[in-house]
Structures
1.
Amino acid sequence: MQKNIICVACPMGCGITVELSDSGEILSVTGNTCKRGDAYARTECTNPVRSLATTVRVTGGVHNVVPCKSAGALPKGKIMDCMAVINAVDIQAPVALGDVLIPDILGTGIDIVATNHCPAK
Ligand code: SF4
């Protein structure tokens, strides 16, 4: 089986072809122009992950929401569940840049952190 993917590890966007056995074992990776592409392709075929950037609701702040991101890559299959957790949270102002808003989201070991500040009213 052959899987064609676009590497998103840098803006070059190389097209990568991964050959897989019937059992899903990676037989070869071609088309990447650097080692990062090889690693990206192998991860994408075995355990795809994504970084998450969004906003979280704030109470008592000068803004109603504050931007946030995952401190590391999350399993792709858990992104929607993570968004449900984030959407259900209401953070009390003030929020400082880098504050951990949701520690260890869904037991992934990854924190959701603020990427801006939100002073109290
Ligand atoms: S293979 Fe290397 S050069 Fe190509 S997109 Fe991926 S990281 Fe960039």
Note: Residues 2-46 form one domain.
2.
Amino acid sequence: MAQSRLNRLLQYGLKAAPQGPIKVEKALSDYINSYFDDFYAEGFFNDIDEKNDHEGHVKTVQVNKYERSSIARNKCIDYWGKNCLICGMDFELTYGEYGKGFIHVHHLRPLYMVKKDYIVDYKNDLIPVCPNCHAMIHRIPNGEKLSVEEIKQKLGLCIKEHE
Ligand SMILES: [Zn+2]
Ligand SMILES: [Zn+2]
């Protein structure tokens, strides 16, 4: 497993297993970033939507280039709804008031591929997903990602098309 991941990095231009900090070529850094950008932007580690701390102070940890996608995130939820588009999970229904407003937003067009001035299309680029389905979208068990449709099929759910 670890070996095949290293092989992949080597494929993308890594010279050898790094022993410390190294400089990497763009193709390799894009490849590596593809694993992180989306996660950071969507709240795997930091929910982009929760900008205020408990005292209402604005957090300064938000990354500028994702500020706009926060607006797109809200538009995405306005458009698609607040439930997971794959399994239908509704956090407010499950967790009551505490879960209200919680949902991840998955970027169908990975942010690392998006130019700085690209305006996120909240209808076609973003979908609301629960963290479970989100993790499944990003899971790469055999080096191949499943599409959103394929994950829906795995769940055996037939999600009504959004008109
Ligand atoms: Zn889900
Ligand atoms: Zn995602």
Note: Residues 37-65 have pLDDT under 50 and may be disordered.
3.
Amino acid sequence: MAKQNNSFGVALFGVGRAGTIHFGNIIQRPRLQVLYLVDIFPKNCEQLLEKNYVPPGRTQVCSYENSQKVFDDENVSFVIVTTPTDQHEEIVRRALDAGKAVFCEKPIAVDHTRADQLFALSEERKVPLYCAFQRRFDPSMARIHDEVIQGEHGKVHMITTFSRDSPLPSMQYLKISGGIFHDCAVHDIDMVCWIANEKPDSVFVRGTARHPEIKAMGDVDTVAITLTFPSGVLATIHLSRHATYHYDQRLEVHCDKGMLQCGNEAADIVQTFGSNSVQGALPHFSFPQRYRVAYAAELDHFVQVLSGECDRLLVTRDEVNLVSAIATACEESLRTQQPVQFSL
Ligand SMILES: NC(=O)c1ccc[n+]([C@@H]2O[C@H](COP(=O)([O-])OP(=O)(O)OC[C@H]3O[C@@H](n4cnc5c(N)ncnc54)[C@H](O)[C@@H]3O)[C@@H](O)[C@H]2O)c1
């Protein structure tokens, strides 16, 4: 993996919703240089560069067909993969084979066996492979985790999360998303297991499709997941593909000595008091706004690992595999309507 004077050349694959966020963070960091933007629609890359006033010649635009030169370029230290999920595995494998470190949007692959093969390759090539569970870097969620792990609040009784998306993702996105568990629930499953600090022993799911188009594609959009843990901790995850009142992201941990709660953030905190009612701002519209700080912090963390300032990735191979295996168990539980006993 090449690095020059502690600065890093980056190639970004996929300039859609997630790619645009990471691109915005890269160009704000002087130690990072976007050498290539790759997309099946190169025009989208050109528009992104123009919109961000990137001087001509600084970043090469490339179609996926012509992307071998990206992997051959020794100035590229790491690759960011923000293509649709079904494209991750191939790009991650090509990057690792070329000795590049990889920052990949979740999920790394469609199941934990395939993800694990990529982690094995990253260890063989001695380059980091990061799975972008950005909620770990959200200051409020990280604080809840740290306080619970330190035992400040006694033992955990119950962990509850709510994740309701906004806006409703496009049907085109949902069709190739990998399904609600691998695409959406993985963030919550990761958060719950990270805070519980153990592996669940069973998972039980009920789900329904309230949107006819989602039903027609064989997926669900409304889900309740219950996880039990050997210590006795119980967790529930509530998911929806669409909340009309903006992006709803909440976390609650009930412990012996009290309850920790991370509510929604709003764009502003103004409240208008009338004679009969109080009005305030809605939660943030969507993930780019809600997790703005977390996306930047996870990129900084990844770069610190590359530069040796931090000795290991916060999100580990075992944790990513566990989350992916639980997502698959959720699919089984939904299908069979039975609890799935879980061991990994
Ligand atoms: N962590 C998060 O909060 C978060 C949020 C959104 C999306 N994601 C993840 O990011 C990934 C992308 O999602 P999105 O919403 O940005 O999708 P998107 O459809 O908005 O963007 C995907 C982009 O990739 C391009 N593309 C498709 N195939 C490609 C290929 N082979 N090579 C290069 N470019 C290619 C598309 O043209 C498009 O520009 C998904 O895996 C998703 O799970 C994560």
Note: The chain has a mean pLDDT of 96.
4.
Amino acid sequence: MSEEGFFERLADVASKVEAAGGSALVVSHYDADGLAAASILARTLMKLGFAIHVVVLEQLTPAGFARLEKLAPGYPLVLLADMGSSALPQLSKLGAETVVVLDHHLPGDRAEGVEEVNPHRFGIDGSREVSSSGLAYLLARELEGERAVELAPLAVVGALGDRQDVGKGFRLIGLNRRVVEEGIEAGLLEERVDVRVFGGGSRPLVKALAYTTDPFLPGITGDEGGALAFLKSVGVEPAVEGRLRTLNELDREEKRRLASALVKLLLSAGYSVQEAERVYGATYVVVGEPQDSPLRDAREFAQMLNAVGRMGAFELAVALGLGVRGEALLKAADIAGQYRSLLARAFKCVREESVMKEARACVVVDFRGRDFLNERMSGALASLLLPYVKGGKLLLVLVDSPEGVKVSARAKEGLRAHVGELMAEAAKRVGGVGGGHESAGGATVPADKVDAFVEFVEKALLSG
Ligand SMILES: [Mn+2]
């Protein structure tokens, strides 16, 4: 149980990858961390001469697993990122020569014949200190040495996508810190402390505010008109002489006024003080991206991958991770805009219709029957809605899925339960699958078993 053991494991797995050769199947998850990990692995394996096939999946649901079983036997090397640690015995029977799992979710039973790297096995907190894109980066470091450092910014993007900015002032910590420092040292990353609107200092402030989804700014995110009105109401001129101003152009007093007005806005929307303070803190700059690019701010880069992935444009997301820009970036920006509008619409449902129901231990937000949402958006909505949930409760967000109903769960501080374990157990009871981290998890359950599922979770929390 040590960092040393972790790195030994990583080196061991790297040598197995090198020995494989030929073609590789990279399997990953559709969120920002999974997509960044897929891109890091694809770039690294291509450089090593592998032919690559990338498949982006929901976690290993029965349908996802069936797809994998069909594909895997054709490849000498199968690499799974951001998933797999809970299904090692099944994965050992895939029929590929070498199966590698890079996962930071809570692991299940071990199995022979699968090469797993999971920080939890070495006493490293995979929910806070390293994500799957960090694991992919560290593996690339083993395989390629110094040359892999060019991938450090992408690993930081993935970690931010998984909200691992849990250090003081919303900094990355643990193994993520090591990645940040390597990136800074190579001149590829900068860490700054500022008002955290998306686009950093260089985008027109009205747009920067409307683009900010972390934190989600009620009435402003996805709504430039709302952002404009907000700036005027707090006495910050959005434009001078017909030209829109940027954050960098504000004087110290204006910045202070903006930050405190944002904190006030979040507090009045029901955020805790600690969460409202997310408007000010560490920002990560991807130095190689142009000043006006939405990929220059690593948090915005993460949100873009997240948006593109959750809207189902997986190839586009991986292309961005591989460094493709131009048309691809314009298209991604367009999809990210559509995604923000969908989130704004979902928030409107929460504010104006009775989709949020409070039980004793759970708060259930029921988006079933809302066709404008797909199952990939439930996790994003759960993270964004969590600030509105009272302490000690579990938030469950329900969205229709082709395989039944997707449930995303988030624990509010004070909840005494392991969310991932609870999701796994409750889902199993009703013939579904579930899992996750200590404070975030999810499940896919049959549509007619949702009530039984929620009831089981509620009872388990009340009795535990
Ligand atoms: Mn992840």
Note: Residues 59 and 65 are 9 Å apart (CA to CA).
